[in-house]
Amino acid sequence: MLTPIEILVCVKRVPMVGGTIVLTTGGQEVDTRMAGFTVSPHEECAVEEAVSITERLGGSVSVLTLGPAVASDQLRESLALGAGHAILLETDGREWGPVATAAAIEAQVRRQAAQGPGYDLVLLGNEAADTGDYQVGIRLAHALGWPCVTGIKKLEVTPEGVRAGREYRGSEESFEFGLPAVVTVKEGINLPRYPSLPGRLRAKRAVIEQHEPDWRPDALQKESLRVPETPRTQATVLGSGAAAVPALVQVLAELGVLP
Question: Alpha-carbon dihedral of residues 87, 89, 94, 96, nearest 10 degrees?
């Protein structure tokens, strides 16, 4: 019989961008005034994976985010999916780099271990959907002295430990390790469920644990963001109806399509 497992899932509040990306003046941030916010697909899958594991083995799932007070909305989204506890590391809205973010999460992991029971597994998305950082999971594991695997699309907890798999250049890699551990997962590891009405109601009433970590700048400094130019396409109207046939034949001949 397996021992119930305590899982922490780290999620991030990111802009819900479905159209043209616009930067703020000075190119320091993405202009989100006309956009909503959500949790990245990688992290949605991490929440689903954690809930599924505890449904099989017992235990509990906690979700954590580092961000402004309004980031509690994303925590409640995760609670509606089945997580049982939420932690907000509240900031003043400044973007935290990977070094400071990992340090803040490490402090929470050690705080929980002191209170008991500690986390057995920490899940993160493989990379941030907005900044593309791949560092937080690795830095967190290094600080804790725990094993870490990244880019995972298969995860199985067994009596012997954890078995994780990922795809790399057309081949499959498999890793086996013990707990506690840090794992970063990719979209596609599962199909996240939709929140139920009871889940939404429970999430709305849930009390969110809050802490205020000390902000510190990372050694790497951002100069500016740049939106890559979108390739432009151009179309030429050859005509309409039968009148366009001669022009079409000429174009096909120029392309070498016609014999």
Answer: -100
Both structure tokens of 17: 């961008």
Q: Collect all residues with Cβ–Cβ distance below 8 Å to 197 and sequence separation of at least 6.
A: none
Distance (Å, whole) CA 156 – CA 223: 41
C-beta atoms surrounding 17 within 10 Å:
17
3-state secondary structure of 140: helix
- What is the Cα–Cα distance from 82 to 77, expressed in whole angstroms? 9
> What H or E segment, with its residue span, contains residue 124?
strand 121-125
pLDDT, mean of each 10-residue run, the chain (259 residues): 84 77 73 76 93 92 94 94 95 86 95 93 87 86 95 85 88 92 93 91 94 80 74 77 82 80
Q: Is 207 left (phi over 0), alpha (psi -120 to 50) or beta?
A: beta
Q: Which of 183, 166, 186 is nearest to 174 (CA)?
A: 166
Predicted TM-score (pTM) of this structure: 0.81
In angstroms, rounded to a whole number, what is the distance separating the alpha carbons of residues 50 and 58? 11
In angstroms, the CA 144 to CA 199 distance is: 33
pLDDT score at 34: 64
User: Rg (Cα) of the chain, in Å, rounded?
Assistant: 23
Contact (Cβ atoms closer than 8 angstroms) between residue 72 and residue 205: no
Using the structure block, give the residue that is written with the tokens 């043209």: 20
Tell me the three state secondary structure of residue 166.
strand
pLDDT at 122: 96
Res 2: pLDDT: 60
Helix axes 197-205, 72-80, angle to 10 degrees: 140
Domains assigned to the chain:
5-211 (3.40.50.620)
Which pLDDT value is given to residue 17? 67
